[in-house]
Write a structure and sequence with these properties.
The chain has about 400 residues and is mainly alpha-helical. It has 20 helices and seven strands. The structure holds calcium ion.
Length: about 400
C-alpha cells in the first residue's frame, strides 16, 4: 500500500494480484549486486540518525545482525513491467468467485469483531474484509521479504532512499516496542506487511490494538488488522453510511472531457445529465441530491462507468490507484451479494479468474509447454506456438482454444 505505489502501479498490481508476476520477473536481467562498502558506510551514517530518533543500540544491533543488502529488492524498485496489465485482467484475478466466497466466509467468521469495528470507526464489515482480501488474500499472502533487509537495502541504494529511510526507522521502532516479533516482520519488497499490508510509517500513525493484548499486531491479530484498516479509512475521510459509488449508464454520446474521480458534482447534476445507476433509481435517489460525486471510467466511454463518492477516495488513499480502489469497492459490493458489472469491458478477450488461470496452465503443461509456475501469464513463445498473438497475455480466447479436445 501507500505512496510509492502510484509511481509503480503495474508492479503493485502484480504484487497484489499475486497472479501475473512469474514470467515478467523471469524476463528481467539478474539483480544488481549491492556494493558491500556502500552498505557498510550507509549503515554507519544511518545508525546515529536512528539513535537520535530513539532507536537503542541493542535494537539496532539485533535488527541488523547478519543482514546483507538484497539486490532482488533493487530490481523490483527499478522493474518496469514489459506490458501494462489491462484493467479487465487485473479485476478478473482480484474479484473472482473464489475471492467472493472466501470473503463471505471471513465475514461470517469475524462478524462480531467486524461489528465492533464498524461501531468504533464507522466503516462497514464488507469494506474492511474487501481490503483484507485484496491486500493479502485474507491473510494468505503477506509477502516474503524481511523488512529490515528490504528497507535497509532501499535506504542505502536506489532512487528513493530518503523515503525508505523513514520506513526503516519506523520498522526499528516497531521492533523496539515489541509490537511484532522480528520473525513475523516480513512483507512486500517495499515494506508493506501484515493482513492489510501497512507500510511501517502508516503502522506508526494508524495501527490500533483492538484485541486488547497491549500490542497492535497486524500479522497475528485479525481484530487488530481489521480495526487498523477501518481506522485508516476513517482518517482518509470515510463517511459512515455513504455508498462508495455505483456503476452507472451514460447517455449516448456523453462527453467525458474534464470528468474524473476528482471532479465532484452533486448527484442531482448527474441525474439532470442523464447519468443513471444501472441497478435502478436515479443518482439523486441513490445518493441524496447534494452528495458530491465524480464520474470515473477506467477504459473509456464504452467500458463500465461509475459515480464515486468521497468513500471511494478514502479507499483510493490506501494505494493511490483507481484500478486498485475499484477492486476493493467492487469486492465489497460482491460480498454484500452484488452482481458483476453490467457493462462489459471494451475487449473481445476478457480476463481470467484465478481458477481459470490455473486451468489454463494445467492444460498448457499437459501439452508439454514449459510454463513455470501456475500464474496466468504466458511467454511469447508459448503463444506463438499456439497460434495466438504474442503479447504475453492469456485471456478467455486462449483458454477456450485449449479446452477443445
Ligand atoms: Ca493486539
Amino acid at each position: 500500500m501507500a505512496f510509492f505505489i502510484q509511481h509503480l502501479q503495474p508492479v503493485a498490481c502484480l504484487l497484489a494480484a499475486a497472479a501475473f508476476s512469474a514470467s515478467a520477473v523471469a524476463q528481467t536481467s539478474p539483480p544488481p549486486e549491492p556494493d558491500a562498502a556502500v552498505w557498510a558506510a550507509c549503515l554507519k551514517k544511518l545508525r546515529p540518525q536512528a539513535a537520535r530518533a530513539g532507536v537503542s543500540a541493542s535494537t539496532w544491533t539485533a535488527a541488523f545482525k547478519n543482514v546483507t543488502p538484497d539486490g532482488g529488492v533493487l530490481a523490483k524498485l527499478d522493474n518496469q513491467p514489459e506490458f501494462k496489465t489491462p484493467i479487465w485482467d487485473y479485476l478478473a484475478g482480484l474479484v473472482d468467485d473464489e475471492r467472493v466466497a472466501d470473503g463471505q466466509r471471513q465475514l461470517q467468521a469475524h462478524m462480531p469483531t467486524l461489528e465492533r469495528v464498524a461501531q468504533a470507526y464507522g466503516v462497514d464489515p464488507a469494506t474492511v474484509v474487501a481490503v483484507w482480501g485484496v491486500e493479502s488474500n485474507f491473510g494468505q499472502s503477506f509477502g516474503r521479504y524481511p523488512l529490515v533487509q528490504a528497507l535497509g537495502t532501499l535506504s542505502c541504494f536506489g532512487r528513493r532512499q530518503a523515503f525508505f529511510q523513514q520506513e526503516l526507522l519506523a520498522t526499528l521502532h516497531i521492533l523496539q516496542r515489541g509490537d511484532v516479533p522480528p520473525e513475523r516482520l516480513v512483507g512486500s519488497w517495499a515494506g508493506a506487511f501484515g493482513h492489510t499490508q501497512f507500510m511501517p510509517t502508516t503502522y506508526e500513525r494508524l495501527a490500533v490494538d483492538f484485541d486488547g493484548d497491549g500490542r497492535g499486531d497486524l500479522t497475528a491479530s485479525v481484530p487488530d488488522a481489521m480495526a487498523s484498516t477501518a481506522h485508516f479509512l476513517q482518517k482518509a475521510g470515510w463517511k459512515s453510511g455513504l455508498l462508495w459509488g455505483a456503476e452507472v449508464k451514460l447517455p449516448a454520446g456523453f462527453n467525458l472531457a474534464g470528468e474524473g474521480r476528482r471532479t465532484k458534482r452533486p448527484a442531482s447534476a448527474w441525474a439532470e445529465r442523464g447519468v443513471t445507476p444501472v441497478a435502478g433509481g436515479s443518482a439523486t435517489a441513490v445518493f441524496g441530491a447534494d452528495t458530491p460525486l465524480g464520474l470515473m471510467t477506467l477504459a473509456g466511454a464504452n467500458g463500465p462507468a461509475f459515480l464515486v463518492s468521497r468513500n471511494f477516495d478514502a479507499i483510493y488513499g490506501y494505494n493511490a490507484a483507481e484500478s486498485y480502489g475499484l477492486a476493493i469497492a467492487h469486492l465489497s459490493d460482491r460480498l454484500r451479494g452484488g452482481t458483476p458489472f453490467a457493462t462489459p469491458w471494451p475487449t473481445d478477450d476478457p480476463g481470467l479468474s484465478r481458477a481459470q488461470r490455473r486451468e489454463l496452465q494445467t492444460l498448457l503443461a499437459q501439452r508439454g509447454h514449459d510454463i513455470g509456475t501456475v500464474d496466468g501469464m504466458l511467454g511469447d513463445n508459448e503463444q506463438s506456438r499456439l497460434g495466438h498473438e504474442a503479447n504475453g497475455r492469456a485471456g478467455q480466447k486462449l483458454l477456450k482454444a485449449l479446452q477443445q479436445p
